[in-house]
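DOMAIN: structural biology
WANTED: fold as tokens
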Amino acid sequence: MNRQITSEKIDDQSLIRSYLEGRNPGYSTFEKWVDSVIFFKGWGPRIDSADVKQETLTVLLQNLRAKRYEGGGLKSYIQSICKNLCLLALRKSYGSPTVPLDNAETLTSKNNPEDDLLKKEELRLFSDVFGRLSSICRKLLILRFKSVLGYAEIGKELQISEGAARVRLFRCLENARKIRVRIEKP
């Protein structure tokens, strides 16, 4: 069995040309570069990676067709587009809470029983995670997402600084994410 391994680097223009034509190696290379940004652990579970990936590849295609890429580091260019879209998705995710803290009836729809089951399961999981958090974390989450208070208002309520409120809430969310991962492990 004799395999030849080529370490030949493909130039940026060839990658761009193959991507614009919808073939490899451009598409798979660009997709790999985008994935390296999207699956960065710092984003947490708050971004929809499939949506951000598709949006990144779409914006990239539009920019390349409009000849907005002027050279330099192609990988850095693609990753900066992806990073900006991840940040945008993250900002949007913090704009409104995704799961209400009470009243399970608001989660059910009259149309699709399968959706109802999924939403009830999501609520059950949320309740399980929420119940395992410390009382201060539960209070922080209620103030932030149910009462929709800003960090300054939370700080006043808890008699801490705005920065401390941000840090504590971030740690509580990280803790909730870790608890959820432990619960969902088979």
